[in-house]
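Page 42, continued from yesterday. The earlier attempt failed because a stray header line got pasted into the input along with the sequence. Redoing it now with the clean sequence only.
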Amino acid sequence: MAIIDRVKYDGPGDTLVWRHPPDDLTWGTQVIVNQSQEALFYKGGQALDLLGPGTHTLKSMNIPLLRKFIKAPFGGDTPFAAEIYYVNKATKLDVKWGTKSPIPILDPKYNIFLPVRAFGQLGVRVDDSRKFVVQLAGTQSAFTVNALNEYFRGIILTKAKDYIAETIIKKKINLLEISAYLEDISVELQKKIGKDFADFGIQLVNFMLQSVNVPEDDDTVKRLKKALSERAEIDILGGQNYKMKRTFDTMEGAAKNEGGGGMGAGMGLGMGLGAGAGMGGMMAGVMGSVASTQPQHTASCTNSKCKAQVPATSKFCPECGKPVVAATSKCPGCQHDVAAGAKFCMNCGKRLGSHSCPKCSAEVAPTAKFCGGCGAKLA
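This time it went through. C-alpha cells are written below.
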C-alpha cells in the first residue's frame, strides 16, 4: 500500500467538494490547500479538523482532533488511514436554472390559463464547509455545481412559481407585460430561497429572474396574441375604418379563390356589397365611386370657350371651374324641376318624355291617356 506524503487538489472549477482517496497517510505528510479552498479531515465517519489555505504538515498542532482520534505518537512516521475533503469556496455566478415544462397560470386580465416558463441565473458560495459536507455532499467522491443545481431545482421552481403567480394575481399584471417586474421579483425570491440554501452551509450570492415567457407555438397564446393585435388595429384605425378594411380584405380574398376569373371576382364584389349594405352609410364613398362609372345625365358648361359636358348635378365645371347651370325641365305631373333627360320624376315618380304604346308600339306623349294609333288606354 502506497504511503502518501503530499496531498493537493487542482481539479475543475465546477467541483465544490472533492474527496481524497482513503490511502494511508503518515505523520509528516504535507496537505496543500489552495486559496479559496478548505480541507476537512474525516476519520471513522466523523468530521474532525478543518484547515484553511496554506501548507499544513500533519505532525503540526493545528490538527488536534485528528491527532487525538488516531492516538499517534509524537515521534516517527506512523502510517494511518483518513479521508480529506477539499471544499471549493470560490463564488459561482453562472448557475443556470429554469422550468423543464411550462406551468399553467391564470392570467388575471384575460381570465385564461397560459403556459408559463421561467428562466434565470444564480450565484452561490460555500459559506460553512463543515455543514455543507456533512449535510449535502456526504460520502460522495465529488460534488459538482450541476449536482447542487439538481438538488435545489425543486425548491427554486416551487417558490419561483408560487411567488410569480402571487405577484400576478395581487398586482393584476398581465403575463405579456411582466418583464417590467423581473427585478423586483428577483429580489424577493432571493430572500425566500436564500434561507433554504443557508440551511446547508451555502450562501445565495444573487438570484436573477431573467425571463418569464410563454411558448410561441401554444394554441392559446396564438389566439390571445391575434385578438390583441386586432384590438390594437381597431384602436388605431377606429371601428368603422377597421370594418371597411376587413370588408376589403374579404373581397380581395374571395377574388383570389380558386375557380378564378369572373366567378371569384363576382363573389368578392357580392360579398363586399352585402357587407356595405349591412353597415349603413359606411360604404357610401365606395358605392359613389362605382356609380360614377355609370352613364349620367349631363349639362353644358356656361363658359362659351369651354362648353364641356359635365354631370347635371355639378355646380362647377371640372375643366375650367366656371359655374354650371344644369339643364332642367318641369314634370308634367307635379311641375317639379327634373334633370334634363330623366326618365322618371324624382318627386312623384311619373314617367317623363315620350314613350311607346304597349299594344301597337306607336310613340305617344307623356301626358296622353289614350294611344293615338290604336286607341288603347294608357296607364
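Notes: The radius of gyration is 47 Å.
Reminder to self: strip header lines before submitting.
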